[in-house]
Each structure stands twice: as C-alpha cells, then as structure tokens.
Amino acid sequence: MKILMVGNGGREHALLWKLRQDAPTAMFYATRPNPGMEPLAESVDVAPTDVDGLATWAEGNQITLTVVGPEIPLACGIGDAFRQRGLPLFGPSSSASRIESSKAFAKDLMEKLEVPTAAYRTFTKWPDAEAFISETGGPLVVKASGLAGGKGAIVCPTTEEALEAAREILKEERFGNAGSEIVIEEFMEGEELSVFGITDGRHVVLLLPSQDHKRVGEGDTGPNTGGMGAYAPVPSIRPGLMREVRETIFLPILDGMEAAATPFRGLLYAGLMLTAQGARVVEFNCRFGDPEAQVVIPMMDSSLLGLMVTVARGGSIADGECHWREGAALNTVLASEGYPGDYETGREIKIPAELEHRDDLLLFHAGTRREDGRLVTAGGRVLSVVGLGKDLEEARGRSLEGADAIGFEGKLFRKDIGWRALTALENQEA
Ligand code: AMP
Ligand code: GLY
Description:
The chain is of the alpha+beta class. The protein has 4 domains: 2-93, 3-Layer(aba) Sandwich (Rossmann fold), CATH 3.40.50; 125-180, 2-Layer Sandwich (Dna Ligase, domain 1), CATH 3.30.1490; 191-312, ATP-grasp fold, B domain (D-amino Acid Aminotransferase, Chain A, domain 1); 328-429, Phosphoribosylglycinamide synthetase, C-terminal domain (Glycinamide Ribonucleotide Synthetase, Chain A, domain 4, Alpha-Beta Complex), CATH 3.90.600. The chain is 30% helix and 26% strand. It has 13 helices and 23 strands. A hairpin with a 4-residue loop joins strand 10 and strand 11 (204-206). The longest helix is centred in the middle third of the chain and has 19 residues, at 241-259. It starts with a strand and ends with a helix.
C-alpha cells in the first residue's frame, strides 16, 4: 500500500503517526513534511494547493490512498481532481467543502434543514450591516464568511464592538476576500465541544468528542486563534448527547447534502455550543480539527486506515466502528509570541532528549523547519505537546512537563488547557 498525506502541520503529523501504526508495511509520502514528519514519510515537493500536480504525481506513483489534512486543498478541488482520475482520496469534493469555506452556505444549509444553530444574517454592504447591528444591539458575533485560518470570528459583547468588527472586515478588508461577505450571529452561551464524524455520505462514525481552546490567553481571554490546546474525552458530556448530535445535526446535514447532489464524504467536524436549549452548531469544518486531532487520534484503539480506505473507495461504513483506549489525552500548543498577530520565526528550538520516544508524551510538529542542521520555529503554532494518562489530570501533568522543558525564545503557551473539565471534576470530588 502507498499512502500520500497532504499537508504538513500538527494534525497531519498526528494522522501520519497513526496511519503508520495501522499499516506498518505501507510506503508513506507527504507534501513538504515538517521535520517531525520527515522520518515517517518520503517528501513530495508539490504544493498542497497544486491539485492537478498532486493528482498527476499520485497517478504516476500508483498511490492507493491520499489523505488530505487542511481545508484549502479541499476547497481548491483536490477531491474532484483525484476522483476524476479514479484515485482514492479521503476528503470531500470542493462543492461539499463549502460547508467550511463559506459560512454563509453553511448557515443557509442549516436553516433549510432545521439544524440547531445561532440566528443569523449575511451582509456584503457596510451600510446594511451597520443598520442591522445598530437595530439589534450586542452581544453579537461577526464573522468573515470565507476561510480565515480560524481567526475570522469576532465575539462582540457590545454594539460598538460589533460595529467596529463589521467595519474592519467589510470596509477595511481585514481578512481580504474572505471577508467580502460577513455573517452576523446571535451570541450563544455555553461550553464548546468538537465532534468529528467519519462519513461515507450516508453513515457516520462519530469519534471521541474533544474540547479546543480558541482564545490565545489563559481563562479563555484575548483574540481567537487556530487553537491553543485541546483534550479528550470531555467528562461533562451528559448521557444521550452524542445520540442527539448524530440525529439532529450529522444525519440531517448528510441527507440534505446528498439530496442536493453534493454528498459529503470524508471527515465532517461539527463545532458545537452546548447551550441550555441543547447542542447547537457554531461551525462546520470539512477536515479534522487542529489541535483536536492531536488528542483524538492518539486515543483511538482501532484502525483509522480501514475507515479511510473504505470511504475513499466509495464504499459503505454502515457497520463501521471505532474503539477508544482508557484514560485521556491533553495537548498544549507551543506558539510564537505575538500569535495570532505578527511573530518572529527562525528561533532555535531545544527539545530535551528525554522527551522523545515516550509512550505517555507525544510531540507533533507544526511550524518547525530545519536551518543549518538546527530545528527552528517557522510558524505561529510551533509544536503540539500531547500528554497521555489514566485521567485528564495525569495527561495534563505530562503535557505541561513537556511544554515547560522545550525551549525557544518567545515561547507562548497556555498552562490552563482543560481547566473547565478539571474544575468540574474537582467540584465533583469536593
Ligand atoms: P468559528 O470561526 O465560527 O468557529 O468561531 C470561532 C469561535 O468564536 C468559536 O469557537 C466560538 O468560541 C466563538 N463563536 C463563534 N460563533 C459564536 C456564537 N454564535 N456564539 C458564541 N460564540 C461564538
Ligand atoms: N481547532 C479548530 C479548527 O481546527 O478549526
């Protein structure tokens, strides 16, 4: 078997790590792998967005499975380019991936299918947005409709902040073209949950729910980022919730997309808010979450590859299952000071040897590169430090131990990943 991984961040490192365990004798390739992925896969020097170039390469090299990590190649039509040539690829078509690449499309779909989500309006013109915000009043959430690397949603407690956010996106083009349309939403209150479903377009295998930490600062303060850490499982989930999520969210969306001739095959990610009225959708993504994949995947105790191959070949996963190990995983993201704004790169990273090759601590690389034989920072999110343990407390201890021990100038990380769950557990014990 020959497997190509498209993408080179922390999520793709985790996927590659798992697929290699599932298929120890397979040959692995990755597009421009980061230094952590390098020992696991041969490098393919084609950009993930060069979808025809990658399809030609995969055809020439008789690749049996291609797995796509990030959303941009999917939005660019990598799924369509591969399927046109009969090449098995795990990931949706470009039209199905609009569920992520156009928030306006996703909201309209949810409204039509009566999937629970925040009330919303879409705007392309500043005066209309201004009038709506002034009339409705805060709190509101203002979002660029297009892809903005997880940074395009601005939670605005007041009317003035909502006006400012809408003005910045529509008039000052803060997110460029991604913000030519905006979505203004009702503010939802509750805890967030990330649920991944592997789907063949009709059936879905839901994975272990996880919780991301989107804000850059401790106590969930400061601007939104791509995600500063995550943990799984989430202990506060009430009985019946996953069934509700399957029946009120995943299945209606899959049926609706199939009926519209844009079936979704691949990984559908529902970002949820657990409100007093039940689970409501914050957003959908057309791929695994990052940094959530780095905790969900290591908890998997059954083959991921088997499900991916079936879906990529157009088969049915009606009987598909996933099994999970005992215990918990917690990921602390090490980022570059300044992220999600501007930051420096090229800072040398020191990883103590005792952190490598441990069963209870995994390091997944994201924004790293080699420079003159040294490992240096190359992005906003640099490394995922994943602790595994018998419970969340133990997993957190290991993750923090690793996060403290790794050194680079301007290292930024949250020490409080998992705080909601850990506080709730402490209260239960008291
Ligand atoms: P999004 O890019 O849509 O996933 O939004 C990023 C983050 O903004 C979410 O993970 C939430 O923390 C927050 N957010 C987005 N929409 C809402 C909403 N309607 N109500 C409350 N918080 C929201
Ligand atoms: N962690 C959020 C995302 O991957 O979109």
